[in-house]
Amino acid sequence: MEAPATVRAAKSVMWTREDCRKMESAGLLPERWELVRGEIINKMGTSKPHSRIATRIPFWISEAFSIDCILSTCSINVAPEDNPTSDPEPDITILKRPNGESDGNPEPGEIELIIEVSDTTLAHDLGPKAWLYARAGVPEYWVIDIKGQRIHVHREPGSAGYTFMRVVEADGEVSPLARPDAVLKLERLFA
Asked: Is the pLDDT confidence value at 85 over 80?
């Protein structure tokens, strides 16, 4: 199935990872950027609420996963057919094994869970990024909606996107698919 529709200008450029590396070397890209479906996204400075939540997540999620398996803002590989035009950098990536055991970008098969913190990018995180992670086979993807004070939980990835989605409100709790016995209270994250 095709990706969700993306409106592009008639003469827009579909960038690749290689193009971005060259532009980065030449100083033509902003300091923080990511590539999603051929589009270079300027990851401008984060807001205070985004920073506060992103800083809390490793402590909060360590109730379920070893701290050695948690990566912050690290590029990952996606499905082979999407890798040339996508170089996403999730806020948090939870690996199946401690992160010191491999070099390079994590591969989809090494990932348990991806978490994005969304302050101003909710539509992008729930749309193109969710589709990209599902197509790569990432088993679980959470979008923390700061303004809505909730988490969008995505599971059961496929080529058309995630087939299981639910929203957990700030007074609720969530258990990661890989650690169903771990109960994480959202109030600790949003407090």
From this structure: no
